[in-house]
Structures are given as structure tokens and as C-alpha cells.
Design brief:
By secondary structure, the protein is mainly α. It has one domain. Helix content is 83%, strand content 0%. The chain has 6 helices and no strands. 25% of the residues are buried.
């Protein structure tokens, strides 16, 4: 992956912003977190033309998809940043996954200390799976660009 100082700074800033978003959400108490999840659920329900019952039934799934998506973005960015640092192959995969797992563990640890929240090993695995998906998406996209355009 091509490296420029501007891209390195941009990617590093984006990683920091994603971590602030993820960990900031974990610092919210259960009531605030539920309000936000409910609002997002209603918004998606109106976009997808779902009834209120259908929207409420998917609250847990919505939260798991949010975890997965946040960490997919983090995994993509970590992989991009490590690639620009010259990491490749097993080292790139291992470092990206270690970063995703570490962020997931910090995320769940934060929730132990927040009112009404709890830590979940399942969420650590969902988060880590999201990081893996983001990494795979970036690697496949990069491979496609290289083979398709010969760059």
C-alpha cells in the first residue's frame, strides 16, 4: 500500500476518532445508550418501513450490528495504517487483529465501571469479528485495485 505522510496522518487521526466514538459510547450510562439505540432503531425502521413492534424486536440485533460495524471500520483503518508502515502478510494480519482485540477488551472493560452497563465476552468476539471483516475488506479491495488497474 502506498504511503504518504498526509495519508499516514489522516489514517492515524481517523483511528483516534473511531476509538473516541467507540469508547465514548461505552462511557454512556445504560439509559442514555438505550435512548440512542432506540432512536437509531426508529430511524432505520422508518427508512425500511418496519412497524414499531418489528423495530423494538430488533433492538439487541441492532446493538450487535453497531458493535460489528464500528470495529469493521477500526479494522480497516488499522490495516491501512499498518500497511503504510510497511507491514505485510502474517505480521499485518496479526497486528491488525491484536489491535482490534485490544480495543474490544478496553471497550468492554470500560462498560464494567458505567452505571447500568456490563461487560460481555460475546461482544469482544463480535467486535474482533468486525475488525477481521474490515481488514479483509481492505485487503480484498486493495488486491482488486492492484490486479484490475495494474498499480
Amino acid at each position: 500500500m502506498r504511503r504518504t505522510d498526509k495519508r499516514v496522518r489522516l489514517c492515524t487521526c481517523l483511528i483516534c476518532l473511531v476509538l473516541i466514538f467507540i469508547w465514548g459510547n461505552s462511557l454512556m450510562n445504560a439509559e442514555a445508550s438505550s435512548r440512542i439505540s432506540g432512536w437509531v432503531g426508529r430511524l432505520l425502521g422508518s427508512i425500511l418501513n418496519l412497524s414499531a413492534e418489528e423495530t423494538e424486536g430488533g433492538h439487541g440485533l441492532l446493538r450487535k450490528l453497531a458493535h460489528f460495524s464500528e470495529f469493521a471500520l477500526l479494522g480497516l483503518l488499522l490495516c491501512w495504517r499498518l500497511g503504510m508502515a510497511g507491514k505485510a502478510g502474517k505480521e499485518l494480519v496479526c497486528l491488525t487483529m491484536a489491535g482490534g482485540l485490544a480495543a474490544a477488551c478496553v471497550d468492554e472493560t470500560i462498560q464494567i465501571f458505567v452505571s447500568g452497563r456490563s461487560s460481555s465476552l460475546i461482544d469482544v468476539w463480535i467486535d474482533t469479528g468486525g475488525a477481521l471483516a474490515g481488514m479483509i475488506f481492505l485487503i480484498l479491495g486493495h488486491h482488486f485495485v492492484i490486479t484490475k488497474h495494474g498499480k
